[in-house]
Amino acid sequence: MTDYILKNKELSLSVNSFGAELTRISDIKTDTDYLWHGDPAYWKRHSPVLFPIVGSLKNNSYHYNGIEYSLSQHGFARDMDFTLMNRSDSEIWFRLKSSDETKKVYPFDFTLEIGYRLIERQITVLWNVINNGTSEMFFSIGAHPAFLCPLKDTENQSDYYISLDNKENLHYLLINNKGMVVKKPFKEQAILETENGFLKINPHLFDQDALIIENNQCQTVSLADSKKNPYVTVHFDAPLFGLWSPAGKNAPFICIEPWYGRCDSSDFDGSLEDREWGNHLETGKEFKASYTIDIN
User: Fold this and answer.
1) pTM of this prediction?
2) pLDDT of residue 186
3) Residues 6+ apart with CB under 8 A from 245
């Protein structure tokens, strides 16, 4: 478990080899932190990478080729040591390979590479998933960065906003008390009412856990201060994303989570290859995805 630093004239990043997790984003000139510092009283993590599943499996298990496997929420990558691949002044890469340990819960030969690139005030997070096996591979991958909100201890989160590039109201799904999404047709989903793309944050926004927004409704999400000035912006191409903060804790952070996959639905009764929003990767092929964080 080793911390690595990427730094330029604008920002300093810390990345830990444990989970290849981004653990700090700090402004060099103002010493302002933007990423949640991981106080376990609220949530012990900072920005874990979710692999090979996003969210929870129904009954914490799945079937593949007639065999049942157990896998806990968000998978195992966030709790494993990665190997440093290479680093430069502006970029760093880590690698995790399948092992006898991972095959007990996920029977595929894979390589997961995670990179961070720092250019001026933009951080690009890069994922490469490689199928090293002899059969088709099924997986999900997602981000879970937690950003401070509010930025200052003297401010209130309820004075802040979430800003979205879609100026229309959004449709979203919720999770039940077993961690399963409750599916509804698009037109029957709950509505996230915004005003010209701005959503005022209120203390009850996450009372029912994460908000799941599917079907490419947004590709840019920001946190904005009381004057609607964005201070952190996440850009992504993922087909769905989550917004989350721990229910009932009044936690001083909000997660903006681009996902290629999600938890099972409450009525799901299929095997691994049938999971909604999952990804299929042929043998020898590579899946590449990325998202960016702009510090405004």
Assistant:
1) 0.96
2) 87
3) 149, 205, 206, 251, 253, 254, 255
Residue 49 has pLDDT above 90, yes or no: yes
Check whether 45 has a pLDDT greater than 90: yes
Structure tokens at 172: 């979203």
Alpha carbon distance 50, 65 (integer Å): 23
Is residue 69 exposed (0-12), middle (13-18) or buried (19+ Cβ within 10 Å)?
A: middle
Q: Is the pLDDT of residue 1 over 90?
A: no
Q: In whole angstroms, what separates CA 43 from the centre of its chain?
A: 14
Question: Nearest to residue 292, comparing CAs of 238, 252, 243?
Answer: 238
Domains of the chain as residue ranges with CATH: 3-295 (2.70.98.10)
Encode pLDDT of 68-99 as tens digits: 999 999 999 999 999 999 999 999 999 999 99
- Return d(Cα 71, Cα 3) in angstroms, integer: 27
Residues 6+ apart with CB under 8 A from 26: 11, 12, 13, 32, 33, 34
- In this prediction, residue 146 carries a pLDDT of 98
